[in-house]
Amino acid sequence: MYDLKAIIIGAGIGGLTAGIALKQAGYEVSIYERVTELRPAGAGISLWSNGIKVLNQLGLGREMAAIGGEMNRMEYRSHRDEALSNIDLQPLFARVGQRPYPVARTDLQQMLLTAFGEDDVHMGMKCTAVEQTDQKTTATFEDGTQVTGDLIVGADGIRSIIREYVLDEVLSLRYAGYVNWNGLVPADPSLCEADNWVLYVGEGKRASMMPVGGDRFYYFFGVPIPIGSETAPADRQKELAQHFSGWPAPVQTLIQTLDPLASNRLEISDIDPPQHFVKGRIALLGDSAHASTPTLGQGGCQAMEDALVLARFLVTTNISVADALSRYEQVRKERTAQLVLKARDRTDTIYAKDEDNTQDWYEQLKEEPPEAVRHALEKIILGGPLG
Ligand SMILES: Cc1cc2nc3c(=O)[nH]c(=O)nc-3n(C[C@H](O)[C@H](O)[C@H](O)COP(=O)(O)OP(=O)(O)OC[C@H]3O[C@@H](n4cnc5c(N)ncnc54)[C@H](O)[C@@H]3O)c2cc1C
């Protein structure tokens, strides 16, 4: 289809990637973002090869490689510092044709923003309603502004308001049962080797570090805690020291090293896979359609895949915008639903929803051949639109 005007709500990973893909397809694109300054939730993100392939396709491979960390291995250790598994990831990269890149979120967001064009992102614009006729779509903002276009992409995250319009119902967030702390620290060999992703697991908790670009490690901790807990930023080191008391030296060093005021503390939720991603000329994309727990590291990658597939159907078919969007829904619904449910299952195992199950998993980590882990990752990666 030619000469379309697309309105994107939300300038996160999904909205910006969709914006780049739609602009490259020759469409007029504007992004409207609620906040006045972009501050991504979370300090780092691991973009697996399927997400990077989308960026390559959009001509951003070089930029991505410049900001990404080099992660060649993945190592599981127990909370008593016992080696559980050590997986060389390089055979996986050779098989799928692209390495993954862990990256600081602000670097990723800035790279995407520059590639899209900052002038076409309208900040401080909170969308309050969307509507459509057979011919056009309209988004209304809190300040009363209305904009019209040929389609609207609701890339407005896990608490999407556009999802309510598309589904005609409110989908509740489902608390995953654990709290995540994350941030960045300077790279240091006493914490973790520079090309290694290390995960300490035990007592239904985990602590992890991985290299992102700029000589930094992205760290995260996860602990099962009932919903509704809060801790002042200044108390976060104390809180982590209690949860991870007796854990190995690198975990203790990490807790002492991290800047509590720059750390994030999040209660993790997902949503049930919805029945639809699309209503007429209005489509959901990214977390608004399929917010997932982060245990597979696929949420952002799936938002990127969505962006590519959406643009591809708009470019390669010419029946109607609604028809192209429904083709997008058909392709994306099943893949993302499977990953949301797989991540949910993995989350329950990691965070001891059933303690016996979690103990079995710790045993399994010791016995599982590295090839099985590589194969599981390969299957997820190659299931993407670019193979
Ligand atoms: C702790 C954690 C770790 C993760 N790790 C990984 C990982 O390693 N790998 C991976 O691939 N994924 C990971 N994810 C998932 C990933 O962060 C998300 O899937 C991804 O950020 C979704 O992008 P999005 O653009 O759909 O939504 P968001 O990033 O949430 O962006 C939505 C944007 O819309 C804006 N917005 C919301 N409402 C409105 C409105 N009404 N009007 C205008 N603008 C609005 C918001 O301000 C925001 O900027 C992780 C998630 C978490 C929480």
SSE arrangement:
Layout (H helix, E strand, L loop, with lengths): L4 E5 L3 H12 L3 E5 L11 E4 L1 H9 L3 H7 L5 E6 L4 E6 L1 H7 L4 E4 H12 L4 E2 L4 E6 L4 E5 L4 E4 L1 E4 L7 H6 L6 E13 L9 E7 L2 E8 L3 E9 L11 H8 L5 H9 L6 E7 L7 E2 L2 E3 L2 H4 L8 H18 L4 H30 L4 H13 L2 H13 L5
Parallel strand pairs: 1-2, 1-11, 2-7, 4-13, 11-18
Antiparallel strand pairs: 3-6, 4-5, 8-9, 9-10, 12-15, 12-16, 13-14, 14-15, 17-18
Helix pairs in contact: 1-5, 1-10, 2-10, 4-13, 10-11
This protein binds flavin-adenine dinucleotide.
Task: Explain what this protein looks like in three dimensions.
One of its GO terms (biological process) is urate catabolic process. InterPro entries: FAD-bd, FAD-dep_Monooxygenase_BioMet, FAD/NAD-bd_sf, HpxO. Pathway: Purine metabolism; urate degradation. This protein has 387 residues and is an alpha/beta fold. The protein has one domain: FAD/NAD(P)-binding domain (3-Layer(bba) Sandwich). The chain has 13 helices and 18 strands. The chain has a 7-stranded mixed beta sheet, with helices on both faces. It has a 6-stranded mixed beta sheet with strand order 7-2-1-11-18-17. Helix 1 links the parallel strand 1 and strand 2. The radius of gyration is 21 Å and the shape is globular. The model has no long low-confidence stretch (mean pLDDT 97). The site of flavin-adenine dinucleotide (FAD) has 35 residues, from helix 1, strand 3, strand 12 and helix 10.
